[in-house]
Each structure stands twice: as C-alpha cells, then as structure tokens.
Amino acid sequence: MNQKQLTAFRMVMRHGSITEAANALSVSQPAVSRLMADLEAHIGFPLLLRTGGRVQPTREAYAFFQEVERMFYGLDRLGQVAEEIRTLNRAVFRVASMPMVSFEILPQMIKRMIDSHPGIDVSHDVHTSARILDLLASRQIDLGIAQTDPLRKDVEVLAAYRTDCVCVMAPDHPLARREVLSPADLDGEPLVMLNFRTLTYSYLTRCFAEAGVTPRIVTETQPSYSACSLAALGVGISIVDPITPDLYGDRLAVVPFSPAIPFDYQVIKPAGQPMSLAAKSFFTEFEATIAARPNFGRPVHNIST
Q1: Are 147 and 264 a contacting pair, CB within 8 Å?
Q2: Of 36, 85, 31, 88, the residue nearest 64 (C-alpha)
Q3: What is the dihedral of CA 135, 136, 142, 147, to 10 degrees?
Q4: How far apart are CA 201 and CA 207, in angstroms?
Q5: Residues 174 and 240 in one domain
Q6: Cβ distance 251 to 171 under 8 Å?
Q7: What band does 83 get if pLDDT is binned at 50, 70 and 90?
Q8: How far apart are CA 58 and CA 297, in angstroms?
Q9: Which of 39, 132, 163, 218 lies at a C-alpha separation of 20 to 30 Å from 228?
Q10: Of 62, 86, 110, which marks where a domain is finished?
Q11: Cis bond upstream, residue 223 (ω within 30)
Q12: pTM for the whole thing?
C-alpha cells in the first residue's frame, strides 16, 4: 500500500467514478483502475463493486475512506505547517543587543519582521555586551549585537562594524562649537567616562597617555545613553559612540574627536549552531539596513585592529 494507491482511492470516493478521479489526477483511467486493483489486493478486501461499467463503493470502502481522509488531513496539515515555517509565520526568533542599536535600528527591523510575518514570535532584550555573550554561549538567544573578544571560541562573528567615537556635551559648553577636539583640548575638563569594563575606556586611557594628558574623570557610567544624559546636564564632556547622541537632539552638542577612537560592534551567533531561517532573514535585513545608513557603522573584516 502506497500513497499513490491511497490518493487514487480517495479521488474515486470523492468524485464517484474512476473516470472523474482520473481527470482530477490528470492520469489515464486504466492507471486509476490499476492502482485501485493493487490496493484491493494489498488490503485483502474489495473497495469497489464493478457492474455495467460503473463502480459502487462497498460498505468496507466507506469505513476505510474515513481513515484515509484522516491521514490526508494530517498530511495536509503537515504541508501547511511546513509552509508556515518556510515563510516565518511559525517561528521564534530571539535577539539581544547593546543599547546603541536598540533605540532605532532594532525596533524598525522588528516591526518589519512582524509586519511581513504576522505569526512570528520575536523576543528582543537589551543587555551589556558581556551578558549578551553569555546568552549566546549558552544558546539562549539566536543572535546578539554586541562587542566581543575575537579570541572567544564559543561565539561566531557574522559581521563587524566600526564607528568613531564623538565628544558630547551641553550645548552651552565653551567647546561645543569646535570643529574637532583632541586629548589636549580636554586637559583639565571634567569628563564623564564610559565604565572601565568597556573597550572604549581602554582605548581612551591609551589615547590620553600617548598625548601626555591625565584625564579629569568626574564619574564613570555605562551604557552610552547614561553618559549622554550626564553630559546633557552639564556634568562633563563624554566620549561615546556616534549613534546614541542622536536621541538627544538639541539637548547635546556633538563634536568629532581626534585621533579616531573606534567603537566597534558585531553581529554574533552561538558557535557550532546553524542559523534558523528567522535568524538568516534578520541578519540579511540587518546588513542591508546598515549598508543604507553608513553613519551606523562601516564594515570591518578584522575586529582585532
């Protein structure tokens, strides 16, 4: 007994004749008759009474047909489920990101995913990079957008992007109208530094040391939006990523910093785990989004430089 035989039987029962069943299946009438005969031989009892060129289902055929319909309903349901999975209307996608990309980029992308795939279940958390890496390593999320150590073996970097840090301060600060600021310009100025656990802190410490400047740090904080808020209140100048200050509008003055201090971030997945269809779709959309917004980062191929 095979699916072709059962399909032929189902069509005969539905259409009431071998001829109509053959038309529905786009095969010849003898082919349907042969499939029916093979099925009857396999199950050991007749399904059709053939009299005068016509066929009449036996009572056993009706009982068998009920089970065949249940089986095909299950197959149809499996086909529907497969289509929902393929089109991401039956999918769960879990992503975590550092705050920098969580205010504008991620909400827009998640909205597009939900609009395009109403059945998708999207979970988005905002964490520090260290926490995101832990979630990836333990496979609790599908993708992460964070800063990572290139030597880690439990995560895999899919793409890396680089931005250059900027100085932010209250609009009435005396340095707010400068075209660019250097470590020498900040000598003696109150600074709001990103936390010592961040890569930016390490870069800035080395930068000031090479310039022979001892920074006057009045407070450390994390993440960048906290530093921006303190800078907007006039606590001091902060050196942060160039994306977060956009949220503050005219509450902040933004001045480029030289030499360039990189603020890198990466799209990361758990090592050794294939990407889901939803994760692949998200990653493709993320690459396209960043390509259209160069101020959100330029691709880099070696995150260790």
Answers
A1: yes
A2: 36
A3: 100
A4: 10
A5: yes
A6: yes
A7: confident
A8: 72
A9: 132
A10: 86
A11: yes
A12: 0.71
Element at 265 (helix H, strand E)? strand 262-270
CATH number at residue 9: 1.10.10.10
Q: Nearest 10 degrees: CA dihedral of 22, 25, 30, 36?
A: -100
Among the listed residues 86, 301, 198, 127, the one whose alpha carbon sits nearest the alpha carbon of residue 138: 127
Same domain, 8 and 54: yes
Backbone angles phi, psi at 201, to 5 degrees: -60, -45
Residue numbers of the domain that contains 134:
92-162+264-300
Q: For residues 8 and 65, is the Cβ–Cβ distance under 8 A?
A: no
Residues 193, 199: contact at Cβ < 8 Å? no
**Helix (H/G/I), strand (E/B), else coil: 240:** strand
Q: Judge contact between 275 and 95, C-beta under 8 A.
A: no
Distance CA 144, CA 152 (A): 14
Where do the H-state alpha helices sit in 87-223? 105-116, 129-137, 199-210
Do 229 and 171 lie in one domain? The reply is yes
The H-assigned helical ranges of 117-223 are 129-137, 199-210
Domain end, chosen from 86, 102, 126, is at 86
Per-residue pLDDT of 18-77, as tens digits, reads 989 999 999 999 999 999 999 889 888 888 888 766 788 888 888 888 888 888 888 878
CA-based R_g, the chain, Å: 32
CA distances from 260 to 136, 164, 166 (A): 30, 6, 9
Using one digit for the tens of pLDDT, what is the confidence trace for 133-164? 999 999 999 999 998 877 789 999 999 999 99
Task: Mark whether 123 and 209 lie in a shared domain.
Answer: no
Q: Tens digits of per-residue pLDDT, 191-200?
A: 999 988 888 8
Assigned domain for 305 exists: no
